[in-house]
Write a structure and sequence with these properties.
This protein is an alpha+beta fold. 32% of the residues lie in helices and 26% in strands.
């Protein structure tokens, strides 16, 4: 049996050990949002844009390609329900996206895009790895692809069907300047007009939030 003095010493030692462990393991901070520093982001819930408003579309034969950036600075300008849906696509797969970026040798938060293929023909094929982005004179290939639809791997779309995936690109892809989407030798410059739309909506969002 321990006497009172021994119990006191043991109790004091336990308190010291617990304090040391707490000091060595500080609480984890929340992970930053993809693509932007939290303090520079517009507040969510005040945007009005539809997903197609900030999506680059490109037609190649019977196949239509849509590329949507999922950077928080962009999707926070969307209507609340659209923002929640697009944010959830990334947030629920954060570890896998970061893992794909790390495996490809990228460091920092990757640029993440939602890429979809669609056709109005009876059937069409697509080449997932042929989607590329031209930013500041540099052509970027996808560093990783995370399928969202179960039949993505067959690389075919039936009539009125959509196949989608999340694409991981180098964080050097800059959404604040014009970039081009390239697929099968075709390019789209649509982002140049989208930038102006985003800038105008950002101003309106900040005014609504302040009001």
């Amino acid at each position: 049996m321990y006497n009172d003095k021994q119990l006191f010493v043991c109790g004091a030692a336990a308190v010291i050990l617990l304090a040391a462990c707490s000091a060595a393991s500080p609480p984890q901070e929340a992970a930053p949002e993809f693509g932007s520093e939290a303090q520079t982001l517009p507040p969510p819930g005040y945007g009005t844009l539809r997903q197609d408003d900030f999506t680059v579309a490109l037609q190649s034969g019977d196949t239509q390609l849509k590329v949507t950036p999922l950077d928080e600075a962009v999707i926070r300008l969307a209507a609340p329900d659209t923002y929640q849906r697009l944010h959830g696509l990334v947030d629920s797969r954060r570890e896998r996206l970061l893992g794909a970026a790390y495996s490809a040798g990228l460091r920092g938060e990757p640029a993440v895009f939602l890429v979809s293929f669609f056709t109005r023909a009876k059937q069409a094929t697509y080449e997932p790895t042929n989607v590329q982005l031209l930013s500041k004179g540099i052509l970027y290939r996808p560093a990783g692809i995370l399928p969202l639809t179960p039949e993505w791997g067959r690389q075919q779309v039936r009539q009125e069907e959509t196949q989608s995936a999340l694409y991981v690109f180098d964080p050097a892809v800059d959404l604040d300047v014009t970039f081009e989407v390239e697929y099968q030798g075709r390019r789209s410059l649509a982002w140049a007009g989208i930038i102006r739309l985003l800038q105008a909506e950002r101003g309106r969002v900040m005014s609504r939030a302040e009001g």
